[in-house]
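Box 3.1 A note on notation
Throughout this textbook, protein chains are presented in two layers. The first layer is the amino acid sequence; the second is a token string describing backbone geometry. Keep the layers aligned when reading.
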Amino acid sequence: MEIKYISKNLFFSCLQCAQCTSICPISKLNQNFNPRKIVLKYLSETLDLIDIEIAWLCVDCKLCTEVCPKKIPIDEIMANLKLKLYNKQVGSGFKHTKLFIENIKKYGILNEKKLVFKLLNYDFIKDLPIYIKVYFKKKLYWR
């Protein structure tokens, strides 16, 4: 995936109406997530570590761009930001994204069990006694 050039002047057309933030499903769950502010800080190159971690929360639903009266491509700007962060290997989202891509390349489809085990650094052999104990207490089911 290639980083697209996005003009910094684009954001000056923003009306500050906050429709992008009000429709965003992530901003409803996390009050610190504000697409408008993240994009503004990204374009003005003033992102800090907290903004970087919050930017990874974007689920790319594209609702922000759909409701923007000025049709600012907020979704593309967020995708550019996350791609830059991935290339620089920055933020907690980097590890998840890297493992997700490796998982798809290896199995051809998303193998969620393997992804979760890798993300959480589970070692099945080392943790086997715990799994056996939990299984016999009827708290773990194998399909």
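The mean pLDDT is 85. The domain at 8-90 is CATH 1.10.1060.10 (Fumarate Reductase Iron-sulfur Protein; Chain B, domain 2).
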